[in-house]
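Researcher: I'd like a candidate sequence for this fold, 536 residues long. If you have to choose between options at a position, lean toward the conservative one.
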C-alpha cells in the first residue's frame, strides 16, 4: 500500500514540477534557413508580404513573391536537402514524449511552462497564449496537435522570461490556418496538409509543410534569432580613406547647388567647378576648384568602388523596380540587377549588432520616389551602410536617405528637401543639389533603434515594436505641443498621445501585428509622418 502511494506521489511530483524543462532540442538542419517551404506543394503569395528567410518548394511552384530577404528556391539541391531535414525534424517532434495533455482550445489569456503538450484532435488559438521560460534560456515548448490548427483574428503567442521563438515548435497533423492579425511564434510543421496565413498576420518562426501548399497574404514573417542561428555581421566595410571627409563629391564633373543647402562634410570636384554652396551653411571645406584633397579623394574613391564591386552578393533582390515597399533587410551583401526604384520605405535591421554592415549593389541607375525613406532599426548605423550604383542617382523630393552612395559613371541629382545621412560620391558625372540637408555619417551618433533625419522632430524606437516603444525628441527640439496619432491601414485612429517631455514611453500592446501610419502635429500643424510595424 505504501509502495503504491509512493509511486503515485512521485509521478504527481514530476508532473507538477514548475521549473522542469521537459522540452527536447529539435534539429531543423537546413530547414532552419527557410521561412516558408513545402516539400510537395506550391508556395504562393498575395499582396506585399515582408519575408526574411529562404522561400521555396521541392516539388511545386513558388509564385507572386516580390523582393524576399532570402533566396528563392525551386526544386534544387537546397530544397532537396531541406525536404530531408524537415522530415527528420518532424520525426523528432512526432516521437517526443508528451508531458502534458491539453484541451483543444489554446490561449484565452493562459500561461504555459516549458514542455511537450499533446492535443488529441483539432485545436484553436484564441486571444493570448503566454509561454513562460521561467528564466531558462534553453526552455523548449512543443505542441503536438493531432488534427487541424487554426487561430482567431488578432490572437497572439507571447514569450516571457527568456522564452525564444526558435525554441517553440508546432507539429500539426492537419491544415494550418492563421487568421488576420495573428501574432504567431515558433516553427510550424504541417504534415500532409496545407498552411494558409492571412492578411496582417506576423510569424516569428517558420511555416513548413511536408506535403501541402503554403499560401500567405500581406504578412510579416521572419526566421527567429538564437538557438544557433548565424550572428549576422554583413561583409567587411571598405576602407574609405580620404573619401570619409566628403559629403558630396564628383571626381569628374561640375557640382552645383541651388537654394539653401545645409551640409556637414566637405564638398567638391576634382575636374569641374563647385558652385552655389554657402560657407555659412556648410560645416566643412568647399573645394571650389580641384586641389590636392580632391585628387586624393578621386584615387581613394576608385579603391572604395573596387572594394564594393568585388564583394560576392549573398542575396539577389529579384525585382529592382519594386524596391522598398516596407522591405526589411538584414546585414548582407545584396544585389539588384537592373535600374532600381526605391518607393515608400526600406528598413535596415542590424538585429542589435551596432557594427553590422550592409552593402547594396545596384547594376543600373538608382532613383527614389517622393518622400521615400531608408530607415535604420535595431542598432543599424548610417556609417555602416554602403550603396554601389552603376548608373545615375536621383533622390527625389523630400526623400530621407541613409548610407554612403558610391556612384560609378553616373550623374547625381538630389532634389528639394532631401535629407541624407551619409555621402554621395561619383567617379564621373555632373552633380546637382537643391535645398538639401546632408550630414556626413562620421558626425552622426547612432544607437539602438532608428537614426532620425534632421527634419524629424522625434524618433519612435524600436521599430518594429512589440508591447512598448519609446518616443525620443531630437536634441534641441523644444517640448510642449507635440501630439502623436497612430492609424491602422484603414485610416482609423487607434492611438493618440501627447509628447510633453524629452522621452516618453508608449504602451503599444493593444496594437495587433501589422503596419501602421503615424503623424506628429505641433499646434495642429503636421510636422512629421511615417510608418510603424507592430510585432505583437
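Model: Candidate sequence:
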Amino acid at each position: 500500500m505504501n509502495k503504491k502511494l509512493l509511486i503515485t506521489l512521485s509521478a504527481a511530483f514530476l508532473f507538477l514540477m514548475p521549473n522542469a524543462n521537459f522540452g527536447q532540442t529539435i534539429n531543423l538542419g537546413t530547414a532552419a534557413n527557410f521561412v516558408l517551404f513545402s516539400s510537395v506543394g506550391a508556395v504562393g503569395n498575395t499582396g506585399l508580404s515582408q519575408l526574411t528567410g529562404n522561400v521555396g518548394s521541392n516539388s511545386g511552384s513558388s509564385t507572386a513573391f516580390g523582393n524576399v530577404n532570402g533566396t528563392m528556391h525551386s526544386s534544387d539541391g537546397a530544397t532537396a536537402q531541406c525536404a530531408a531535414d524537415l522530415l527528420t525534424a518532424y520525426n523528432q517532434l512526432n516521437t517526443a514524449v508528451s508531458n502534458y495533455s491539453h484541451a483543444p482550445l489554446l490561449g484565452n489569456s493562459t500561461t504555459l511552462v516549458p514542455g511537450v503538450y499533446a492535443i488529441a484532435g483539432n485545436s484553436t488559438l484564441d486571444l493570448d497564449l503566454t509561454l513562460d521560460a521561467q528564466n531558462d534560456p534553453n526552455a523548449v515548448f512543443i505542441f503536438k496537435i493531432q488534427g487541424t490548427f487554426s487561430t482567431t483574428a488578432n490572437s497572439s503567442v507571447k514569450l516571457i522570461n527568456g522564452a525564444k521563438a526558435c525554441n517553440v515548435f508546432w507539429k500539426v497533423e492537419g491544415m494550418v490556418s492563421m487568421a488576420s492579425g495573428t501574432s504567431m511564434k515558433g516553427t510550424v510543421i504541417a504534415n500532409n496538409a496545407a498552411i494558409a496565413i492571412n492578411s496582417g498576420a506576423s510569424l516569428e518562426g517558420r511555416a513548413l509543410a511536408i506535403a501541402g501548399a503554403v499560401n500567405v497574404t500581406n504578412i510579416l514573417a521572419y526566421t527567429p534569432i538564437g538557438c544557433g542561428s548565424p550572428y549576422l555581421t554583413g561583409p567587411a566595410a571598405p576602407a574609405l580613406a580620404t573619401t570619409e571627409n566628403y559629403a558630396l563629391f564628383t571626381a569628374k564633373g561640375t557640382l552645383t547647388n541651388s537654394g539653401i543647402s545645409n551640409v556637414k562634410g566637405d564638398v567638391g570636384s576634382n575636374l569641374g567647378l563647385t558652385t552655389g554652396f554657402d560657407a555659412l551653411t556648410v560645416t566643412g571645406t568647399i573645394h571650389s576648384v580641384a586641389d590636392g584633397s580632391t585628387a586624393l579623394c578621386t584615387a581613394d574613391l576608385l579603391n572604395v568602388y573596387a572594394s564594393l564591386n568585388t564583394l560576392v552578393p549573398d542575396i539577389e533582390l529579384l525585382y529592382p523596380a519594386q524596391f522598398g515597399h516596407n522591405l526589411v533587410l538584414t546585414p548582407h551583401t545584396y544585389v539588384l540587377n537592373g535600374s532600381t526604384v526605391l518607393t515608400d520605405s526600406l528598413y535596415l535591421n542590424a538585429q542589435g549588432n551596432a557594427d553590422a554592415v550592409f552593402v547594396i549593389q545596384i547594376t543600373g541607375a538608382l532613383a527614389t520616389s517622393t518622400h521615400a525613406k531608408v530607415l535604420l532599426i535595431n542598432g543599424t548605423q548610417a556609417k555602416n551602410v554602403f550603396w554601389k550604383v552603376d548608373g545615375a542617382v536621383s533622390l527625389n523630393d523630400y526623400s530621407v536617405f541613409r548610407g554612403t552612395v558610391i556612384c560609378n559613371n553616373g550623374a547625381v541629382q538630389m532634389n528639394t528637401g532631401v535629407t541624407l545621412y551619409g555621402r554621395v560620391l561619383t567617379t564621373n558625372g555632373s552633380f546637382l543639389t537643391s535645398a538639401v540637408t546632408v550630414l556626413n555619417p562620421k558626425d552622426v551618433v547612432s544607437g539602438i533603434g532608428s537614426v532620425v533625419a534632421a527634419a524629424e522632430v522625434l524618433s519612435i524606437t524600436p521599430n518594429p515594436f512589440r508591447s512598448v516603444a519609446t518616443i525620443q525628441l531630437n536634441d534641441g527640439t523644444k517640448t510642449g505641443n507635440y501630439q502623436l496619432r497612430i492609424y491602422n491601414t484603414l485610416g482609423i485612429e487607434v492611438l493618440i498621445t501627447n509628447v510633453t517631455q524629452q522621452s516618453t514611453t508608449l504602451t503599444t500592446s493593444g496594437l495587433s501585428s501589422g503596419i501602421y501610419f503615424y503623424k506628429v502635429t505641433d499646434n495642429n500643424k503636421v510636422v512629421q509622418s511615417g510608418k510603424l510595424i507592430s510585432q505583437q
